[in-house]
């Protein structure tokens, strides 16, 4: 079996899409009988990425750029490399010389268009319905997202496959104490603190989280600050305003985007990870925190209960009081933190990229068997 995978996200900063592509490619290559993997790119990957992709073939076509690369360059690469299957994320080409598989992480752009800028909504809502129809299989990380796709696009259940994700390999072991101290020193972070990791955009609910944190801290007087890790996204005016206010009051510290190598240390040193987002297709940061032994507060909506199980403190993300109560409980109750730490470690261990790769290969085999 020879599989082509659109790997352009591997060339960018850490995102959920990149984590997925990286975990899947490496997981496939490490199977006992791996398929041949061709990673399709629009520029040279460089030595570091080539090292990560050892065992995969890289195929490069630089032009045309943007969305036209998916529509024109990707099918040509598939033909030139003679792959049996072509696997993309979200948008498929209109035609390809082999069966198409798409992974759709979530459809928040369809369910909540108010969270997105007009151009993004237009592109996604124009191309994704056809991509779902053209794909021979649609992969998605959770049953919650599979149900969303089925309802929104009328996708047959036989075409939908749930392939859960896992924490990146960097989270397979706790960081050394020296690495933690160095990270906190460089970022000017002092103990104790709680942590948020993610982009600043409406779906992430950061403005409400900041208000809830300030409320809990003011009412109970705990010493923790909220460390906010992540870059500004679209429509983040409310988030940035609340963040400036929280920083001025001493409740929060924004450190912005950080290198992948610093994330394990940031999670490990935090007394809690706070992730009351409004919607997630999967919620990879929850597993990252759990893998580092960090107690998690997360939303009781979308895919997060499915991912967290009983290993997190789940709250209504639209209820600022409920979020504040959960934060206060985590700050005050060492027994609760210890229970969630142990439960989280056990929960994170149930997910692996090996399992994601096995489930994905089974879909590949099923598609090839019927085409």
Summarize the entry for a quick read.
With 371 residues, the protein is of the alpha/beta class. The chain contains 15 helices and 13 strands.
Topology of helices and strands:
Elements: E1 2-6, H1 16-29, E2 36-41, H2 46-52, E3 57-60, H3 67-81, E4 85-89, E5 100-103, H4 108-111, H5 118-134, E6 137-140, H6 143-153, E7 160-162, H7 177-186, E8 193-197, H8 206-220, E9 225-229, H9 237-248, E10 252-256, H10 263-269, E11 272-275, H11 284-291, E12 296-299, H12 304-308, E13 313-315, H13 320-332, H14 334-348, H15 353-370
Parallel strand pairs: 1-2, 1-4, 2-3, 4-5, 5-6, 6-7, 8-9, 8-11, 9-10, 11-12, 12-13
Key structural traits:
single chain; 371 residues; alpha/beta; Rossmann fold; seven-stranded parallel sheet; six-stranded parallel sheet; 15 helices
Principal-axes shape call = globular
CATH topology group of the largest domain: Rossmann fold
Structural class: alpha/beta
- Tell me the Rg in angstroms: 21 Å
Main-sheet strand order equals 3-2-1-4-5-6-7
What is the fourth-level CATH superfamily of the largest domain? Glycogen Phosphorylase B
SSE topology string: EHEHEHEEHHEHEHEHEHEHEHEHEHHH
Distance between the termini: 14 Å
Low-confidence stretches: none
Number of strands: 13
Assign the CATH architecture of the largest domain: 3-Layer(aba) Sandwich
So how many helices? 15
Major sheet attributes? 7 strands, parallel
Mean pLDDT: 96
CATH domain class of the largest domain: Alpha Beta
